[in-house]
Structures are given as C-alpha cells and as structure tokens.
Amino acid sequence: MKKILSLILFLFGFFANAQELKIGATPIPHAQILKSIIPTLQKEGIELKIVEFTDYVTPNLALANKDIDANFMQHKPFLDKINKDRKLNLISIAQIHIEPIGGYSTKIKSINALPNGATIAIPSDATNGGRALILLHNNGLITLKNPNNLNATEFDIIQNPKNLKIKPIEAALLTKTLQDVDLAIINGNYAMQIRLKTKDALILEDSRSPYVNILAVRLGDENKAEIIKLKNALQSQEVKQFIQDTYKGEVIPAF
C-alpha cells in the first residue's frame, strides 16, 4: 500500500511540475504527428498541448501574440510571406515533412481530358497560389513569366493555350468546391482530410518541392530548452517511422 501511495505521489509531483508547451497545428497530418510524440515529451517533463486550427493565418497570429509557443502547419514560403505582410518575427527552426500538392477532379480521369475553358480552382493565398500555378506550368497547362517565382499570380501567366479559368479559393475550402470545378489544386493536408490519395491526383508535385512543412517559433525562443526538446522529438527516427508507416507515401519525411 505504501509503495502504491508513493507511486501516486511521485506521479502527482511529476505532472504538477511538468511544463506545458502549447503548439498550434492543423488536424491532418500535423496534429496526428504531434500526438505521437506526447509520451516522449512527457518523459522530458513537458506536457504538450495541441491547439488545432483550420487555416494557416490564425496559428501565426496566435504565435506572435504568445497565445501558443510554436506552430506546425505551414511551409517556409508561407511563413516568409506572412512575416512580411503582417510584420511578424517568426522563424523556422526545423524541417519535418512534405505534403505534395496535387490536382484532383471528379469530372475527368486524365489531365489530357481537361477541356478548353476549364475552371481550375487554386488556393487564394499568395504562396500556395503560386505553388499551384507552378504545378500547372510544370505540367504544360500554362506558361509563367518566371516559373521560379514562388509568389506568382494569374497576372504572371504569359501563355494559356486552353483558355483555362483560374479561380482562387481559400485553401481550406477547396475540397468543398471539388464538385463545382474541372480541376482543384489542393494542399496535401486538406486532401487527406477527405481521404484523397496522391495516386488520385491527375498532376502532382515531385520530390524537388521547396514547400517543406516546418516547426516555427518566435524569434528569440529558438534556444529555449523546451523548444529544443520539441524540435528533437519531431526530428527523431521514431517520428520518421511514424510518418512512413501511417501515411505510406502521402506524407514524406524531410529530415
């Protein structure tokens, strides 16, 4: 009985002294990956609290406002753009994985069947919109003035032989408009939420993508002990194996 009581008191003291670390994430795959490291961080004296978001902007504002301690839901080009637009001081401290962006359709089975005048929905934010246009360029559907410009817009299209109609829509809503357009360019995390597979994509980003998903923190917090522990846990062999076993190529480790 004394041993049991001692164990209870020990555990109570451990969790009472555990440091809470709040991290913002989108549900799939980011929050799922984070849940896999909760036991690891508990052993390090950290209680990881995952705050889920459904967009890309709010988690950055929450981080800047110190409502959370880190976020894991975006790639570096998006972070760079929102830092510039919103005058934030957030930095990337770790590369974790790639979610290939792809073109999906319920109306055609092959990209060669895309009709003249087809409507293509792309993410409305600048970085993912540019990413979608580069994907269209790389597949010969349009020609961009500079295909290396990650912030390309519709105004950078110099050739559009099929007179495609480009329709910017908020990234989180693209899956809901899939039935209404000929082709939708959807971010990997949102595609997975409705069980779309990369094999379903008519066009797909390749492994040379610069859009690696990152762990972001406020400038000046990168050397905090708890942040370093979080970074190390996310870049562990266990997480790499979790990603490979869970997503089977839909998400690719980048470390």
From TrEMBL:
Residues 1-18 form the signal peptide. One of its GO terms (cellular component) is membrane. It holds the Pfam family Lipoprotein_9. The keyword tRNA-binding does not apply. Transmembrane segments: none annotated. CDD domains: PBP2_lipoprotein_Tp32. Belongs to the NlpA lipoprotein family. PANTHER family: D-METHIONINE-BINDING LIPOPROTEIN METQ, METHIONINE-BINDING LIPOPROTEIN METQ. This is ABC transporter substrate-binding protein.
